[in-house]
Amino acid sequence: MLKLLKWGLIPLIILVPFIAVNSLGLSVNAIQYIFSLTPEVTDEKRLKDVQTRINILKDIEYTSDYDNNIADIYYPKTPGKYPVVFWIHGGAYVASSKDSVAEYAANLADSAQVAIISMNYELAPSAPYPSQLLQTSQMARYFIENAQEFPMLDLEKIFVGGDSAGGQIAAQYLLTQTNLVYGKQLGVPKLIDNSQLKGALLFCGPYEINQLKKTDGKSVLAKFLYRTVAWALIGKKDWQNEPQIDEASISAHLTEDFPPSFITDGNKLSFPDHAKTLIDRLEALGIENQSLFFEENKELGHEYQFDFTKPEAQVAFEQVVQFINKQIKN
């Protein structure tokens, strides 16, 4: 992903100062172009092997007020009920789809013996904040209320996870389920009891949206990405002083009921500072958490964990599987 961010923007980088200031549409198109270059499969041989042991239900339409309301379920072929992982994909809120996590979801369903529900959602800027959060709630409601149609789902054991923008959405949805005042403020109903929530899986997310305005020392590319993401998400060009950026920032709204969390990030063109802010707050509240970061002397980019050719991704994957298995037993 890091290489794509570097090379995919070379034809555009000279235009960044102009398009970032004046044109949200062109800025969003540039980001969508970058994400279109990301390979969907990094280890085809491994994936083909995994696919012999899992089932995939594609494009299930869930009830929603928003567009792009479809989801896939990945689950082991062996008959049974499997703990559920609701997964929200990344893409800077403006790009990508559930297909971007298909390889990872298949591998995780097989190795952790879980059912992954991987959702699509309507993208910004056509659906500004908090549309993605509300759509996540509607997706969860659909599967919970229609559980009889999906006998492979053990909805007494639920994880919520996401990557990049999806990591922030996942964490915010978990806030609405564990901080009732916050959930009511946002109009998100409590659907999942604390006893059902087994964990959070949070990869490379911009958890502290209000930190996106702090761009001192950041590269031109990083400033462009931060500005475009926040402008598209909040829906206002001058988003820096809008109250939504504090509302959407995770750590200030955490309570002791937030579930055990696995958190990881790369170290280049990503959000490790956001992750560490979140971890510090989890620690202060006594919330169980496990984190994985890597030394700065080896460049490891945004969404590194999805590239199964990287040894660091293998380490992260194994730790996630172990974390899930541990929390299922608790």
Brief rundown of the structure:
With 330 residues, this protein is an alpha/beta fold. The protein has helices at 2-8, 10-13, 16-22, 24-36, 44-50, 102-112, 131-145, 165-178, 180-186, 220-234, 244-247, 272-284, 311-329, and strands at residues 54-61, 70-76, 82-88, 115-119, 153-163, 197-203, 261-264, 289-292.
Sequence-ordered SSE layout with sheet pairings:
Blueprint: H1 2-8, H2 10-13, H3 16-22, H4 24-36, H5 44-50, E1 54-61, E2 70-76, E3 82-88, H6 102-112, E4 115-119, H7 131-145, E5 153-163, H8 165-178, H9 180-186, E6 197-203, H10 220-234, H11 244-247, E7 261-264, H12 272-284, E8 289-292, H13 311-329
Parallel strand pairs: 3-4, 3-5, 5-6, 6-7, 7-8
Antiparallel strand pairs: 1-2, 2-4
Helix pairs in contact: 4-10, 7-8, 8-9
SSE succession: HHHHHEEEHEHEHHEHHEHEH
Q: Oligomeric form of this entry?
A: single chain
Ranges where pLDDT stays below 50 over 5 or more residues in a row are 2-10
Number of helices: 13
Rounded to the nearest angstrom, the radius of gyration is 19 Å
DSSP, total strands: 8
Q: Into which percent range does the helicity of residues fall?
A: 40-55%
Terminal-residue CA separation: 35 Å
What do these coordinates show?
- By secondary structure, the protein is an alpha/beta fold.
- It has one domain (42-329): 3-Layer(aba) Sandwich (Rossmann fold), CATH 3.40.50.
- The chain has 13 helices and eight strands.
- Strands 1-2-4-3-5-6-7-8 form an eight-stranded mixed sheet, with helices on both faces.
- β7, α12 and β8 (289-292) form a beta-alpha-beta unit.
- α4 (24-36) packs across α10, α7 packs across α8 (165-178) and α8 (165-178) packs across α9.
- The chain is globular, with a radius of gyration of 19 Å.
- The two termini are 35 Å apart.
- Mean pLDDT is 93; it is low at 2-10.
